[in-house]
Inverse folding.
């Protein structure tokens, strides 16, 4: 069972909502991307919890890289984290793979909301190998923050998908899979991360208003 000391917390302990974020396939829970979103949410009064899947936690301990765990292990890990934090009002999600696995268990887990920071709609270069079947029927209120030129699902590609009405998509200008813009765009990575944070905070507050209503 996942224990409290396996979780990394930011933000006030008495926050009304707790956002649980999982990392992407290739890097852990303390990358600049993950740190920026955790710190940004914490500074706005939200509680943030982060964790690592077994393969990444093992790499941190041993220094030996392994490919991501199989999907059942990833799903089980997510469910254990939800159980540990069950007494909090939970919104779950994360970057890329972390958000994708969260989306697969969100309805079952009965969480208040889901946020995906760059959803991997398909593998790079394989636009017909879609990972959207469960997104057609998901009922958990969902926000997907996606870079306009994300190679895992660009704006033009995603526009052709038939996704659940519970999903709200917000496009980050000129962003890639980490929401980073081209230098020629005149925008900076920090600007795009701040824009994404503002959209995320608006979504979280809308969940809180709906709960009160």
């Amino acid at each position: 069972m996942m224990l409290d000391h396996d979780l990394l917390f930011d933000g006030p302990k008495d926050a009304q909502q707790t956002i649980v974020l999982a990392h992407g396939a290739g890097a852990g829970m303390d990358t600049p991307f993950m740190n920026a979103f955790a710190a940004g949410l914490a500074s706005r009064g939200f509680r943030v919890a982060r964790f690592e899947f077994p393969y990444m936690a093992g790499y941190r301990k041993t220094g030996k890289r392994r490919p991501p765990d199989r999907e059942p292990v990833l799903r089980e890990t997510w469910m254990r984290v939800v159980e540990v934090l069950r007494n909090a009002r939970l919104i779950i999600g994360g970057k890329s793979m972390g958000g994708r696995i969260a989306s697969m268990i969100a309805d079952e887990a009965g969480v208040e909301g889901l946020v995906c920071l760059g959803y991997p709609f398909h593998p790079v270069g394989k636009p017909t190998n879609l990972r959207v079947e469960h997104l057609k029927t998901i009922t958990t209120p969902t926000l997907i923050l996606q870079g306009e030129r994300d190679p895992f699902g660009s704006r033009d590609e995603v526009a052709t998908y038939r996704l659940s009405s519970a999903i709200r998509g917000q496009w980050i200008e000129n962003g890639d899979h980490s929401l980073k813009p081209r230098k020629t765009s005149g925008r900076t990575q920090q600007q795009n991360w701040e824009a994404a944070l503002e959209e995320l905070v608006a979504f979280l507050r809308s969940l809180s208003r709906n709960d009160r209503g």
